[in-house]
């Protein structure tokens, strides 16, 4: 059963589509076929090369990328990308800003003060012209 799942091209297409955040309807539209046809492709163990090339293009991957796709590779990429030195959850959740928030507040305050100064000078100019 393990080898059957590994070589099931339709499941690979479906999983790549899901990882790309694409619905079956969207893929169907890209390919000019019905959603039901996409569902049938994803349930097929084999897909002919020309159709696979077309699907790969619509998914933004290569034909070989689909053929060699494995869930294990994706999980390895994710775990290598989001590593944490402590036992907390994924590092991406613990992202710290690389700027001082207080600096941003001061910058915003200075821009607001400058805008008020510009407004006052504009109004003074209007009063002088009358």
Please compute the radius of gyration using only Cα atoms.
Answer: 27 Å
Q: Largest beta sheet, briefly?
A: none
CATH fourth-tier homologous superfamily of the largest domain: lambda repressor-like DNA-binding domains
CATH topology of the largest domain: 434 Repressor (Amino-terminal Domain)
Proper CATH architecture of the largest domain: Orthogonal Bundle
The total count of strands amounts to 0
Nearest-integer average pLDDT: 80
Shape: elongated
- Note the total helix count: 8
How far apart the termini lie comes to 89 Å
- How many structural domains in the coordinates? 2
The secondary-structure element order is HHHHHHHH
What is the highest CATH level, the class of the largest domain? Mainly Alpha
Please mark out the parts with pLDDT under 50 across 5 or more consecutive residues, or reply none.
1-5
Q: Indicate the structural class.
A: mainly alpha
Strand content: under 5%
Helicity level: 55-70%
Pfam families: HTH_3
Keywords: DNA-binding
Protein name: Helix-turn-helix transcriptional regulator
Please supply descriptive tags for the structure shown above:
130 residues; mainly alpha; 434 Repressor (Amino-terminal Domain); 2 domains; 8 helices; disordered N terminus
What is the gist of this entry?
This is Helix-turn-helix transcriptional regulator. It comes from Maribacter cobaltidurans. The protein is mainly α and 130 residues long.
């Amino acid at each position: 059963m393990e080898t059957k799942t590994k070589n099931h091209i339709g499941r690979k297409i479906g999983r790549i589509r899901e990882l790309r955040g694409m619905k079956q309807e969207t893929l169907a539209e890209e390919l000019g076929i019905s959603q039901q046809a996409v569902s049938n492709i994803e349930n097929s163990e084999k897909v002919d090369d020309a159709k696979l090339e077309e699907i790969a293009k619509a998914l933004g991957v290569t034909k070989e990328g689909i053929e060699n796709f494995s869930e294990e590779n994706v999980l390895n990429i994710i775990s290598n990308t989001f590593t944490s030195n402590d036992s907390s959850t994924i590092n991406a959740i613990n992202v710290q800003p690389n700027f001082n928030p207080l600096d941003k507040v001061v910058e915003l305050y200075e821009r607001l003060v400058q805008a008020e100064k510009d407004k006052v000078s504009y109004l003074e100019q209007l009063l002088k012209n009358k």
